[in-house]
């Protein structure tokens, strides 16, 4: 299968490109810069110059592909306004890709987030929240999944709060970055709230499986660790960086502060049973031991 991948040089995207190539697919990957293009070529993919704001480029890429994996998202989360702009950009890109595939029965797999459900681990059957600072992403994913009725094999892979590789990535990676800047491993709340996690290489395998076989209109959970306590995460980071650990106001984390403070475990039992996905790579707490001072 010839697969168009957006976001192919990010933490998840790099792993997805490698996973697709290792399993006999060819990859056409969006490249926002010459450096990205060189990275993709070195990996064995064909670069497609452009960004997710270039909707004509996206349509052309989808038109010449057998399937699409949509991973790209803006890099600016510094303010609510910047986050909203990134969400709007992603939404327009997904709509353009989905519209190009209407009536073709070709697959598109997009990235989403595991939802928060009070008092228990969320499941694949739980609806994504369409309110709050990232609610726009859920609305965009829902619109894409609705294209199942129009001949698009659309599916969503929900990612946990931390997608990690060699101790970097996701919410845990943001805690480490914040610690390096401030000299303290700060965490919001009382630290008992739980964050789900998955290794990037395990997540990549699920994206490939979903592309190959997920039914239209379905949602899946790429969750390996159902929920690690934030205090446990912070303590490992503190040990690795040699820094003190303490609670800090959630406002220290900008628009993500409210989300950081939530207890949000997630299950992948249905995904494992239905698709045969089996995570095999290190857990988050083990992988964080790769963090370098």
Automatic annotation (TrEMBL):
SUPFAM superfamilies: NAD(P)-binding Rossmann-fold domains (SSF51735)
Superkingdom per UniProt: Bacteria
Segments of this protein annotated with the region Disordered: 115-137
Domain NAD-dependent epimerase/dehydratase: 3-215
Classification via Gene3D superfamilies: NAD(P)-binding Rossmann-like Domain
A Pfam family reported for this protein in Swiss-Prot or TrEMBL: Epimerase
Designated name of the protein: SDR family oxidoreductase
Species in which this protein is naturally found: Catenulispora pinistramenti
